[in-house]
Amino acid sequence: MKVYELSAVAIREKVAAGEIKAREIVDYLLARIDEFDSEICAFVSVEYESARTRADEIDARVAAGDTVGRLLGVPIALKDNLCVRDGLTTCASKMLEDFRPPYSASVVEKLLAEGAIIIGKTNLDEFAMGSSTENSALKQTKNPWNKKCVPGGSSGGSAAAVAAGFAPLALGSDTGGSIRQPASYCGVVGMKPTYGAVSRYGLVAFGSSLDQIGPFARTVEDAALLLDVISGSDDRDSTSAKKKLPLTLDYNSDLTGLKVGLPSEYFNTDGLSEEVKDAVIAATEKLKDAGAEIKEVHLPMVKYAVGTYYIIATAEASSNLSRFDGVHYGHRCDKATDIIDLFSRSREEGFGDEVKRRIMLGNYVLSAGYYDAYYLRALKVRQRIAEDFDKAFSEVDVIASPAAPTTAFKIGEKTSDPLAMYLSDIYTISANLAGIPGVCVPCAQDSNGLPVGLQLLADNFKDDLLFKTSYVINNAENGVAF
Amino acid sequence: MSKITTEDVEKIALLSRLKLTEGEVEMFRGQLGDIIDYIEMLSEVDIEGVEPFINAASEGNVFRNDILRDDDENLSNEQATQNAPQKGDGFFKVPATIATN
Question: Is it the case that residue B1 has pLDDT exceeding 90?
Answer without folding.
Answer: no
